[in-house]
Amino acid sequence: MIEFEDVSLTLGDFSLHQVSLAIHDGDYYVIMGPSGAGKTIILETIAGLHVPESGRVLLDGKDMRSIPPENRNIGLVYQDYSLFPHMKVEKNIAFGMRMRKVPQADIDRQVRRLMKRFGIAHLAQRSPLTLSGGEQQRVAIARALAIEPGFLLLDEPLSALDPMTRELFVEELRTIHREHALTIVQVTHSTSEASELGTRMAMIMDGRLVQEDRVEHILRSPGTTRIARFIGYENIFDGVVRSCEDGLCRVETDGVSVWAVSGAPVGQGVAFCIGADEISLYNEVMDGSALNVFPGSVTKITISGALALITIDIGIMISAVLTRRSATEMGIEPGAKVFISFKASAVHVMDEDESPGLTHHDPMAAT
Amino acid sequence: MKNLWEFWISRRSRTGVWDQCLVAFAIIGSILVMLPLLALANITIGQLADLSYLLEVATDRQVIGSIVLTFSAGLNAVLILLILGTPLSYVLARTQSRFNQAVESLIDIPLVLPHTVAGLMVYILFMQRGLIGAPLAGMGFFFEDAYPGIVVAMLFVAMPFYINSVKEGFQKVPVHMENVARTLGATRFQAFCLVVLPSSVRHILNGSILAWGRAISEFAAVIMIAYYPMIISTLIYYRFTTGGIKESTAVAFVMIVACLVVFLVLRTITRFVGRYDDRV
Question: 3.40.462.20, 3.30.230.10, 3.50.50.60, 3.40.50.300: which CATH number matches A2-225?
Answer without folding.
Answer: 3.40.50.300
